Structures are given as C-alpha cells and as structure tokens.
Amino acid sequence: MTTRISKQKFCSKNKNRRVSPYLAALLSLSVITVPGTVSAATDAVSIRDLHQAAPWARQAIERAAEQQMILADEAGNFNPSATLTRGDLAYTLAQLMEMNMLSSAQLPDLLFKDLDSNVENGSYIHALKLAGIMNGYPDDTFRPGGLVTREELATTIIRMLKSKGYDEALQLTKELSFKDTSSISTWALPSVQQAVELGILKGDNGNFAPKRSTSRQEMAVIALRTTEVIKALEEAASPGGANPESNANEPGKVTEVQGTTSGGNDAGNGKGNTNGNSEATPGSGNGSSGGGSGSAPTTPTNPSTPSNPGTGNRAPVIVSGGLPDQEITLDHASLDWQASSYFSDPDGDELQFSVIAGDETIVSSSVVGQVIRLVPQAVGEITLTIKAVDDQGASVTAKLKVKVLANTISRQFPDPHLAGAIAYWLQKDVDDPLTKDELAEALVQTNGGLYARNAGISDLTGVEIFKGLNITEIDLSGNDISKADASGFDRLNWLDLSGNQLTEINVTELDQLEYLNLANNRLALVDVSGLHSLQELDMNSNELVHLPIGIAELSDLQYLDVSNNSISLREEPDFTLHHTLLQRVYMYDFDDAPPVLVEAPAGNTAYVNGDEIEIDLSFMFEDEDDARSSLKLMADSPDPQLADVRMVGQKLYVRALGTSIEPIRIEVKATDPLGKMAIGHVYVDLRELE
Questions:
Q1: Is pLDDT above 70 for 290?
Q2: Do 286 and 183 share a structural domain?
Q3: Helix and strand element counts for the chain (H, E)
Q4: What percentage of the chain's residues is helix, strand, coil (to nearest 5)?
Q5: Strands of the 326-329 sheet, one edge to the other
Q6: Distance between CA 16 and CA 348 in Å, rounded?
Q7: CA 590, CA 581: separation in Å to the nearest integer?
Q8: What pLDDT band is residue 484 in, cutting at 50, 70 and 90?
Q9: End-to-end CA distance of the chain
Q10: Could you tell me if 632 and 676 are in contact, meaning their C-beta atoms sit under 8 angstroms apart?
Q11: How distant, in Å, are the alpha carbons of 119, 160, 460, 463, 468 from that of 511?
Q12: 628, 552: one domain
C-alpha cells in the first residue's frame, strides 16, 4: 500500500521517567476503550472507503488519519482490511514517538540490503533503527512489505515505550489467561503480557492469536490506545521528575525484561511456533545477534519486530479461528472467496493458492490470483482443503466447509414484492424450491414475457437467474426500482421500466432490443451505445442534461421522446450528429424553444434606379437556446414587380424596381437547427430617386 509522507514532528530527547503508583488508575480510565481524546488534530480528513471498515474501527480510523498516525493512500482510501506491513509500522511508530527525522539526502545510501535511502518511509525506518526499536533480519534485510504478527507488534510497542524511559511502568502483575497463551513465542511472552496489562492489545473470544497478522484498521485502534498510554505515563511521571541515572538512550546499552533482550549483542535462545497451525522445530540460540539454528524464533537482538532470527524462510500462517464456513445456494452466482483475507506470509511473500481436496460434484472450484471461485453444483456439504504456498515453497493447509443450499423463491429474490410476484406467476409459495429449469418452462407459457407492473418492487437482486433464458419482453413499470442491470438478457426485444425511481440503468449489449421505455424516472445519464436494433426510445420526464450516449449511431431509431428534461441540444458534444439524427427521426418531442421576434428594423427606403440597400437583421430574432448567428433567415418579395429581395446570412438586400404608395411588407422567416420557426416582417418604402 502506498503511504503518503506528511509533515514530520520534532521533539527534544526523552529522559527516563519514574512512574508514580497512581499510573494504573490513569490507564484504567484511558485505555479500556478507544480513547475519547487524542492530541490536537490536524484538519479533518475524508476517508473514501470508511464504509468498508468494521463499525468498531471507523472512529479510530478517522482520528488516526487526522493525527497522521496512519495515512490514507493518494486516492483517499484507508484500506482498512489490508495487512499492516513493517514499513507501515515504522511510519506509525515514528509518529507516535515524535522522532527527529533526517532528510533523504542525509540518510546513508543503503539502509539495508533491500532498502536504499530513497525508499518510502526510509527516514522513519532509519530513525527507528538508530533508536534500537526496529532493526532488520540477520541477513541485513528489512523486508518493508512483510507482515506484522500480533506478538511481534506487542514486542515492538513495548520496546518503543522502554526507549522513552518507562521501564518501571512495565512491571508485570498479572498472568495471561488466554486459551492460546501456550502458542505465544517465548521471546514475545513478556511483551505480550505488558501490552495486554497496559490495555494496548486485547484478545478476541478468549484468544490472543499471536501469529495472526494485524490489519490497518486494528492498528488505528491500537495506535490511539498507545497514544493514551503515553499520555498517562507522562502524567504519572511528571510529579517524580526525570531519572538522571537512566542510560536507555545510550547506544549499545542493554535493557533486559523477563529474558527478552533489546539492544547490544547479547545471546539468547528460545522456542516458538512459526504459525498458528503446526508445531515448529525449536531453535537454539548461541553466539551474538540472536543467531541460531532451526525455524523457530530465538530471543531476538534488536529485531524490528521479533521474527525468526535464522536465515530460514517462515511458512505462511492462517488467521486465528481458522476459515469461516461458507453457504452458497444452488442456481445462484458463483462465490468469489478471498483467500488472501485468511492466509498471510510473515515474510511478505505473495502466496499462491490451490484446492487440493474436495468434491466437484457438489462444489466446483477455480483459482484466479488471490480468489477462489466456488460454483455450486448440487445440494450438499463438503470440506475443501485449501493450500497456500509462498515463494520459497513453504506451505500451510486449512479446511473450508461449504454448504450448498437448495434454492427457494425467497432466497433467490430478497425483495418480498418481487418474490411474491414470481411465486404468483409460478403458482407456488415463496418458500417453495426454485430451479432454473422451471423458470424456463414458465417462460414458454408467457411467450418469453416477464410482467410485474405496479407490484411495489424496489430491489431486483436475483433476476440474474433469468439471464441466458428465452426472455423477450420485460415490463416492470410502476414500481420503486432505483437500479437495474439488463445486460446479459441478450434475447430481449421489449423493455418497459417507466414510472420507477431509476437513477442507474445498464442496457448495453442488447443487440435485439427494439423498444425501450424509461420515462418518468430520475435518470441523469443513459448509455444506449450498441442498441443497433432500437426503434423507439422514451426518456420523457427524467433528469437528463444531455441526450443519451451513443444515440446518434442508432440507424434504426424512429421515435425519440426526451421532453421534460434539461437538455440544451446545442451544447451537446457532437451537435451535428444529433441534429442529423433528429431530422431523420420520424417523430420526436424535445423541450426546445423556437426563435422569437425581437424587433424589425424600421425606416428603410429603397430608390428606383438607385443602389441596392442592405438591412442588418442580426437583432431581429432571438433564439433562447443558441446564438442568433445559428438561425437561418429567408425572405420573399411581396411583389417581384416592385422589389427584388435576397438574403445573405443575416443581411437583407432590397432593390427597388418601382414605387408604391404604402411601404411594402417583406416576410422574413427565422429557422433554428431543429426546424422550429419564427416569422417577422420588414417594411421598406419604395421611391423615385430625386
């Protein structure tokens, strides 16, 4: 995920604090729930995908974004369900600590083997490395795209608090009571205990899920909790003052807590579990920098987030609780199951998925990238075995239970009015079974027609079951439908959705459609491209500001009604094509005003044997929909024996051939591009030249 780098924060070097006994009381008020207040916020931000976040995380996401703890991407999306990466965590921790940052020009050319100085979040990663909070792996890589497990997150946050001098606040008073405490790695157990006791991290349904990755929405909540903990620690420490004996900020010094080592080059050993599904081979650490053999984490020395300190690859992991059971309904659309939401790789590798066991007669499956598509074939229950493999060949498998339900009318059509109409048509009850075959048989009885007028229908979910069947006519007029997708009804000849509440309609690729009635809806935009058989289109009384897209290309169109809309024809992108269309259409109705007579030029005199006179008619007529110059003017002489009359553009030319007692009246016709006309008269005196 792309993270925008915002303004950096600066503060003076922190000193160790002595924490007074009332710290627990402060924390109990601050971190039981998502905090109600945080430090002064920046301008409010707009998160475009906030609706995709869990309800419990939305407020935290807004406030974390306002505080610039976690930023949305350049499109304004927070991506709440996306996995938190090590690069994301570096940015967030640096913001929480208000660390001094170096510019990219001041950074070393190479931060880690896999990171140069221009990498995103490089200044934050470098600052955390100098502080001993986040370091790389033994192979001198940082792996910014790697995921962060919950036990790694706990250890990193506690290390951050220690770097701020809050050692005395981190003494343990309670034992963990999670059902999966035994699966917490030895090197992470003290930090998990401390993070839980401070209220920064909590369990779910009695489990801590140490090997599960952390989502961005979870990190938003955790970041705010951590902010409140820091505030409480600051308040608790202020009466006691600073501790001058502390040396936690001196490079190379070691702070030991319950066997977990951070900083320095002390050796360590430990036993852990590489994922939440199988026991890993224990590793034994000997030497410096947390070196060791085996695949399990040993006591880390300055890992950025505790992980396997050996050079071996870590296997993929499964979310806590396993894979949730799935239900699909026969004759419904396939289910696209997002496998990447339930598997993750500790090293940030992209996983490849496959289904290695199942029953294709009940549910068939196919894999497209990170998605497993499940297609129901028959009623029943099966268990699929899903396998996830990383780039190095390490894998994990998990069971996915899938139940295929028999389809019923009410399951197929959630809208009760639509379900009732279908049940009435089939002479069945809404809870009776429904198959696509019986729909095909019923359509034979109605000659391919589907009719449900004035039935109170508002939701067309489920009508996709008709796609591919021989439907030639649909009349759903007079309902409350707001969205409709008719694409895929490739045999449709006649469609009436008038008198609904439509704001969206898709009628693309209906090659055989001849009649389309969308009158009396709320449509502001309609695309009729490709409807080459369309002969009649009624768009009366909508909210159109332009003619339907693609209408100029419909060579068979004979009737068009776009009246009672707000269309200004002359502002159309291709007026010439539309004008040609409207001239060709046998009948159309368009809410367009004709030209109006403003004022005819007066005082005009032409002399026999004199020069032809010129009369400017540019201001004689006015077209409310266009500039006057677009009007076509025509004039006729009332008596060719008395005067010769001709028009050139907006100019009237008169030559006197004889005299008359009364001025002659020349009729002038003004026609706009739609053929609408106004008539006026110009009076000219005809006299002898003196």
A1: no
A2: yes
A3: 11, 33
A4: 20, 25, 55
A5: 326-329, 395-405, 380-389, 352-357
A6: 35
A7: 13
A8: very high
A9: 91
A10: no
A11: 52, 65, 22, 19, 14
A12: no
CB 332 within 8 A of CB 376: yes
Closest residue by Cα to residue 230 from 128, 96, 101, 129: 96
- Residue 226 to residue 482: CA distance in whole angstroms: 45
pLDDT tens column, 431-446 = 999 988 999 999 999 9
Q: How many CB atoms lie within 10 A of CB 662?
A: 8
Cα-based distances in Å from 370 to 146, 323, 332, 360, 373: 17, 15, 22, 20, 10
For 525, which DSSP code?
Answer: -
Structural domain including 321 reads: 317-405
Cβ–Cβ under 8 Å, residues 677 and 671: yes
- Report the C-alpha gap between 204 and 194 in whole angstroms: 17
Pairing of strands 677-688, 664-671: antiparallel
Quick check: is 453 in a domain? Answer: no
Closest CA to 361 of 375, 373, 348, 347: 375
Domain co-membership, 347 together with 258: no
The candidate with the shortest Cα–Cα distance to 81, out of 338, 306, 399, 321, is 338
Q: Which of 68-77, 185-194, 230-239 shows the lowest mean pLDDT across its residues?
A: 230-239
The CATH number for 373's domain is 2.60.40.10
Residue 254 has pLDDT above 90, yes or no: no
Rounded Cα distance, 270 and 284, in Å: 6
Q: Are residues 95 and 40 in the same domain?
A: yes
C-alpha dist (Å) from residue 314 to 93, 122, 690: 25, 25, 113
| Three-state secondary structure call for residue 444 | helix
Range ranked top by mean pLDDT from 167-176, 279-288, 676-685: 676-685
Residue 368's CB is within 10 A of a number of other CB atoms, namely 9
Q: How many domains does the chain have?
A: 4
**Residue 524: band (very low, low, confident or very high) from pLDDT cuts 50, 70, 90:** very high
Note the helical H segments in 114-149.
122-130
Using the 3D structure, point to which of 589, 623, 645 is the last residue of a domain.
589
Inside any domain, residue 137: yes
Q: Does any domain span residue 11? A: no
CATH number at residue 545: 3.80.10.10
Rounded to whole angstroms, how far apart are CA atoms 6 and 653? 71
Same domain, 182 and 49: yes
CATH number at residue 645: 2.60.40.1080
Separation CA 302–CA 162 (nearest Å):
13
Does 614 lie in the same domain as 543? no
- 124 and 231 in a single domain? The answer is yes
